[in-house]
Structure formats: structure tokens, C-alpha cells
């Protein structure tokens, strides 16, 4: 049996191990971030390089993965064993929802012992609730909204419930072809919803509401086009200070995202195109806005190939979108982008990209003029251009208090990674800084990197997707390659972090030693 001294040492070791966090399963390599700025003048001519077809090769997580993170921060595993985790959302009672489209379900992650980490997964919704490839989610005025590939459904939500019941109400139908992801956000006035709808093609002309941002009442009524020409408006968010709407867009590449207006009276839905660069009819490739019940849906912005992220800035209340752009024009065309969007703006897809001076070859006549010069002339230049084929998949504004003040009200974006580039790119989390006027500074910088182990493969052990700021101010993100969620925390000094990890390892060794002594009943 143990002596009193051995028992005492065991108790102290247990206490110290509980204090020091040993969840880190990766070696963190810190770096000082540098601005990455891409301008219209930097863009090559179409077909300067051949168009590659190289999907990312998902490799198992290495036994000692090397994850790069901005200096002062640490990255560690938050939870694993999910099924293609995508979008993240807090419930009003503090649980975490994660959409898992390939499993056709939404999971509720519960922290039952209040240690800051989920220890239970409950199915919040599945096919029995008419869930169909769920992506964007929102809680608005007593309802739970989900952006399925085939439209927007809402369900009455009973406070503290960890499962929804019934089939809910389909408040808006959307063609599920092409870009199937849908993003949705609520207006700062909480009376409208904005929906991002990707195009049906890569760069063929789709009729509205494809490749646009749509605006509607909360019940889905009175839907109109808010902005258009956005191939795949994959992220939408209102700025936390200015309340202006920003979009992150993936060019020429279906997801649905949804966000609520800051006034809580509208919902905004991003709907991607059905194709790469064929013209899709609206509401494809647009952001739609509607009433909270889905009525009065209109197009808010369009020409957005796949508007995959939508969010209102927390100060300006302007709507921002992250958009995936078109493929097939070469390694460095066409940039994805992040930008503020306003009513009736057009962002080029499929006739132009980034500027009225850059027309898509597929829609250019032999004399050099566009088949739609009227729309080309309206093409807006986005606020921040992103390396082509990065495949931005989500964005959010940082409103927590853990990170340094320079991150406050700036945006984070998740890059899922390329398939249409000779040398792989993306597979990381980036930060988009804002200035004192609550506008983007025009560049982005790497924040978490290192998952791409062989760019020529490309080989990667993580494909980032969804983002969420936790209540303690840390950041978590999903990745659907090895089905994990990672957590990023700020440390006062990286040396403290390394010391903490070292001490944890030492005491784990001590614990194993005394377990051995106990097993052999050594006095």
C-alpha cells in the first residue's frame, strides 16, 4: 500500500494536473504576422497559368502536429469525433450548436461539468425535423432558424431545450442545385433577415436571386435583392460599430448562410450560384433579405458567386459578406473577397470580377466588349481581396475581451483550402484588421496556419470551416477534414505557455510512476 507521503504526492500531482491544461495535442510554433495585400493591379491576365484540378489530400493528424499561430496565442484541441462539422452557434442558454451537413443533423455540445469543454453531444435536429444539409443557423425572437440547402426553416424554440420538435415551418424555398451552402444573418434592427445565395454555375449567367444577397422580413416575406454579382457570398456580418454589412465571397466555384439584422427585424440569407460562371437567375448568387417570417423577400445585393459568410459589424451595423469566387481562369484568378455590401450593389459575377475593367472571357465578345456592359459598369471593387482559390467558408467579427485590443471588432475568416491551384493555398484562419473608422484596412494576415504539410500535394490534416467566439473571449473553429474543433487562446507570453505544457508533461510522468507503484503495492 501507499505510504502517507506517497498519498500526499499523488494528491498534489492531481491538483496541479487539474490546474495546468494538458489538452494541447500539438506543438505550437509562433510567428509574427505580416500584412497580405492583393490589389486589382496585382492580378494576372486570365489563363496566365493552366487551371489545375488538385483536391486537398486529407491525411491523419500527425502524432505531434506542428500548428503555427500568431505570437502570443496558443492552439489546442477543443473536441473531436464529429461528422463534417461546419457552422457554429451559441444557443441563448450557452450550449454550442454545430451543423453537420453530411450527417444531415445539428448537434448540441453540452459542458455538463462546467470545465469549459463539451463532454456530451445531443442531436438538436435531424432529418425527422426536415433538416436538409443544414449550414447557417440563427436564434431570432423565440425561433430557431436554419438555412438548409433547399430553403429556410424556422422552429419555435423552448428556452433551455436541447432538441427541437416537429418539422417547423418552411418560410422560404431556395433551389438546392449548385452551391448548396446558405448563410443567413439578421439586420441590426432585428426586423429583417439577409440570405446569401450562391450561383448555380462557375461563370455562366444565373438569373436572380442566384449570386446575390437577398433581404426579407423575419417571416420570409417581401424578399428583395440587396446586392448582386457575388458568385458565392459565403459569409455575411454587420460591423459591430458602423452596422454596415460585409460579405466574404468565394469566386467562381452549395451552401446557405443566414444572419439577423442588428435591429432584429429582418433576416439576410446568402445563396450561392448553381454553376462556376454561367448566368444563374436570381435569387442565385445573391444576398436576399426578408421579414422574420420569410415574407417580402427581396434581393439585397447580387453578382456574388457564393456569399458564404454574412455578419453585421458590431459597431457600424453595416452588413459584410465573405464570398467564394469563380474557378478555371488560372492559379491566381479569381480572388475570393471580403467586403461591405449595400442595397442593390453588384459584384461582377459572372460578367466581370473585382472591377469594371476586368471582364470574364466567357462573357466577352470578339470586339472585347461584354455581353452585359450595363452590369459590368456597375461592378464594385471589394474591400479586401483574398488569394484565389483559398475557399473562404466563414467569417465573424471579434467582440470578445480576451484578445489584445487590436483585434476588437476586426474580422476572422476560415479558409477551407484550394482544389483549383497547382500549389495548394488556404487551409488556415486569417484576421482582417479594421481601422478607427470601423472600415477594413485593405489587407489580411495569417492567424492560425501549419495544417498544409505539403503544398504540392496538397496534403493537409485540417480544412477550417466555422468560427465562434466563446464567452471567455477565446476563438474556436471547426475543420471537416479530420472532424475536429480547435480552440485559440491568448497568453500573456508564449514562454508561459511552453512552461505550462512542460510542467503538465512532467506531472503526467509522475502520475504514471505512482500508478505503477500502486499497481505493484510498493511501500
Structure description:
- It is a single chain.
- With about 525 residues, the protein is mostly beta strands.
- It has one domain (about 30-490): Neuraminidase.
- Helices cover about 10% and strands about 45% of the residues.
- It is built from three helices and 40 strands.
- The strands form nine sheets. Strands 13, 14, 15, 17, 19, 20, 21, 23, 25, 26, 27 and 31 form a twelve-stranded mixed beta sheet that branches. The chain has a six-stranded mixed beta sheet with strand order 1-3-35-34-33-32, with no helix packed on it. A four-stranded antiparallel beta sheet has the order 4-40-39-38, with no helix packed on it.
- Strand 6 and strand 7 (about 105-110) form a beta hairpin.
- Helix 1 runs antiparallel to helix 3.
- The longest helix has 26 residues, at about 495-520.
- It is globular and about 70 Å long.
- Residues about 10-20 and about 495-505 have low confidence and may be disordered.
Could you give the topology of this structure?
Blueprint: H1 4-19, E1 27-31, E2 57-58, E3 66-70, E4 73-79, E5 88-90, E6 96-100, E7 105-110, E8 120-125, E9 137-140, E10 143-148, E11 151-156, E12 169-173, E13 181-188, E14 190-191, E15 193-197, E16 199-205, E17 212-215, E18 218-219, E19 222-251, E20 255-258, E21 263-271, E22 273-279, E23 286-290, E24 292-293, E25 296-312, E26 315-325, E27 336-340, E28 345-346, E29 352-353, E30 355-359, H2 373-376, E31 384-386, E32 392-397, E33 411-415, E34 428-432, E35 445-449, E36 452-454, E37 459-460, E38 464-469, E39 475-479, E40 484-490, H3 494-519
Parallel strand pairs: 1-3, 2-37, 13-20, 14-21, 15-21, 16-22, 18-24, 19-25, 19-26
Antiparallel strand pairs: 3-35, 4-40, 5-6, 6-7, 7-8, 9-10, 10-11, 11-12, 13-15, 13-21, 15-17, 15-23, 17-25, 19-27, 21-23, 25-26, 26-27, 27-31, 29-30, 32-33, 33-34, 34-35, 36-37, 38-39, 39-40
Pfam families: TrAA12
Domain Pyrroloquinoline quinone-dependent pyranose dehydrogenase beta-propeller: 68-256, 264-490
Organism: Adineta steineri
